[in-house]
From TrEMBL:
This is Replication restart DNA helicase PriA. It comes from Frisingicoccus caecimuris. The keyword Transmembrane applies. GO terms for molecular function: helicase activity. The chain crosses the membrane at residues 326-345. Keywords: ATP-binding, Helicase, Hydrolase, Membrane, Nucleotide-binding, Transmembrane, Transmembrane helix.
Amino acid sequence: MILHYPCPNCGAEMTYDIKKGKLHCGHCSGEIALSSIIQQSTSWTAEGGTSTEIDGKILAGAEYHCPNCGGLMITKDKETSTMCAYCGAPMILTDRLTGKRRPAKLLPFQLDRQDAEKAFRKWCRNGRFAPKGFTSAENIQRLKGMYIPYWLFQFDTRVDISAQATNVRIFRQGDYQVTETEFYDIQRAYKLQYKDIPLGASRQLEDGEMAKLEPFNFNELKTFDMPYLAGFDSSSYDFDDGELSPSAKDKVRKYAGDYAQGAVSGYSTVHLNGHTVNFEREEEAFIFVPIWFVDYNYHGKVYKFMMNGQNGRIAGTPPTSRGKMAVWWAGISAVLFIITFIGSMI
Ligand SMILES: [Zn+2]
Ligand SMILES: [Zn+2]
């Protein structure tokens, strides 16, 4: 099933406008607030697809027809929203966004296409070293806003810390200096709650790549709703909560270790024997986080530009054109030569 938002005034396809936080019609400039769409959701059409969700699993290779132009679309693996390849209409594949695969929350984009293009040009140093194709208008147009699947974990833990500590007191007694050492065996238990532990759930982007874009500010999470996806790519998770839970727990063990290091204080010396972490309660939520993305194949290698759609943090390495680098160095040495030459004349 495909959901899209034809403009009530002119019928053109509406997309979500990041700066306005509303659906916007590029044709007649009509706008609709999300709150009114949510109320009217039954009047919007979802049509033209085959059901692909069985028991929370997505079947690959499902075919959909664009409700705007009728064009046939073969979906990519876990795709949940995209633009029609023929007419550019936003398409939201609602049957892949049901049950467990419906995100509980989403971080809406704060930075729009203009912001992303500006950051991309700056990142390429305005094309000084990058090959021509990379900074071409055509490539910049390929920049797309994507929602990436994440799992957010929350744990209630009991952390037991065992330590030995001493208190040393030095004082004079007659002709003697006395050193008095008190020894303590310390056992402490803490109830610690760890919130918003994020784990990337997409195979398309490696966890390390996404980690460079973090942190995301999860205080700004909004309840998920379909209109947020109008005009953006998104995909469902490749890894479910069960698969990622052990990695989330590893993160918590590390945080608990850091906590244990500083937990016992107020003594002359502290030696930590160790700590144990017991997980007493676990909760998880499937969410979408926003990035701007473009990849580029240059001399057989894929280069990626990725920008956090919330705070503008950037990851990736731009390709450098050897020809352009050589010209730049030649330019520098010529300048140096001239300066030296004038210097020696004076
Ligand atoms: Zn319109
Ligand atoms: Zn179309």
